[in-house]
Design goal:
Its cofactor is heme. By secondary structure, the chain is mostly helical. It folds into 3 domains: about 30 residues; about 70 residues, no CATH class; about 150 residues, no CATH class. It is about 65% helix and about 5% strand. The chain contains 11 helices and 3 strands. Strands 1-2-3 form a 3-stranded mixed β-sheet. It is globular, with a radius of gyration of 24 Å.
Length: about 290
């Protein structure tokens, strides 16, 4: 009898805690959100509804955007605004850009992967990195180099797709385009060939997969209310993210170390074309 009572008490307590947590979460989601106020964009559900469409999220949100150019998804303590209205996009990205910071909420989610890079910071740090990037991309050498890289990789992409088409091979178009993009970005940014489009580089392919998976896992944090708990205990998706980030860090660290070594040995030509070589070259000149 005592065992049954203990089991019943434990079960009832767990259920009560679940109900309390659910009610608290519901209150946080719906309170103070001006749901029926016509001055605010219409509500199209909660951020947790995206869990059901996560594997086809872009298609789902495109379908929603065709019906509502601007809409809200409610979340605990805040709403997320989505828009395809060109006027709103111009307002956010150009006219009043300084008003729309990434904020602590987004930084907490993205920092593990992007660190203090331009994609995750605000204010002076963002302006400093943008100024550096803008200066480098304004140089003729880098413009010419990046154009040649993108043209060359576009030709590779056409060849790879043509070869698969000839043998009626089914392939993932998004994955193929991402491989091509990564090839170009790494050549322009770091001066190295990932060769992940052809799949000839094991390290490049491993990095690409780790980076792609990490992006998906970071984005999943937006719909996973338990991600911080998972991170603390290093379990589930957060354990996978940590593993992938280690692969990314090791790859990039080795790349930077090699680049510094080549520069120190003066084995790179004076006409430094990629961004990393130009930055390191500038550091050497200042020192």
């Amino acid at each position: 009898m005592g065992i049954l009572f203990t089991i019943f008490t434990f079960t009832a307590t767990v259920l009560l805690l679940i109900i309390i947590a659910f009610l608290y979460l519901t209150f946080q989601i719906y309170s103070g959100k001006s749901i029926k106020n016509p001055d605010y964009p219409p509500v199209n559900g909660t951020i947790f509804s995206r869990i059901f469409y996560f594997n086809r999220l872009y298609d789902y949100q495109t379908d929603v955007a065709k019906k509502q150019k601007t809409f809200r998804l409610l979340g605990p303590g805040q709403s997320e605004l989505y828009t395809t209205d060109i006027r709103n996009i111009e307002h956010v990205l150009k006219t009043k850009f300084d008003n729309y910071t990434k904020g602590k909420y987004n930084q907490d989610i993205a920092t593990d992967l992007f660190g203090n890079g331009i994609f995750a910071v605000d204010g002076d740090k963002w302006r400093q990195q943008r100024k550096l990037a803008s200066f480098e991309f304004s140089t003729r050498v880098l413009r010419d180099f990046s154009c040649s890289v993108f043209r060359r990789n576009a030709a590779k992409l056409v060849r790879v797709i043509s070869e698969m088409a000839i043998v009626d091979q089914i392939f993932d178009m998004q994955d193929t385009l991402m491989r091509c993009t990564l090839n170009s970005i790494f050549k322009v940014g770091f001066g190295v060939e990932l060769n992940c489009l052809e799949g000839s580089s094991k390290e490049g392919t491993e990095f690409m997969k780790a980076f792609d998976d990490s992006n998906a896992l970071v984005f999943r944090r937006y719909v996973d209310p338990l991600w911080k708990l998972k991170k603390y205990f290093n379990i589930g998706s957060e354990a996978s993210l940590k593993k992938n980030i280690k692969i990314i860090d090791a790859f990039v660290t080795n790349l930077i170390r090699t680049k510094r070594k080549l520069l120190a040995e003066e084995r790179l030509c004076d006409d430094k074309e990629d961004i990393l070589s130009r930055i390191f070259g500038g550091e050497q000149e200042r020192s």
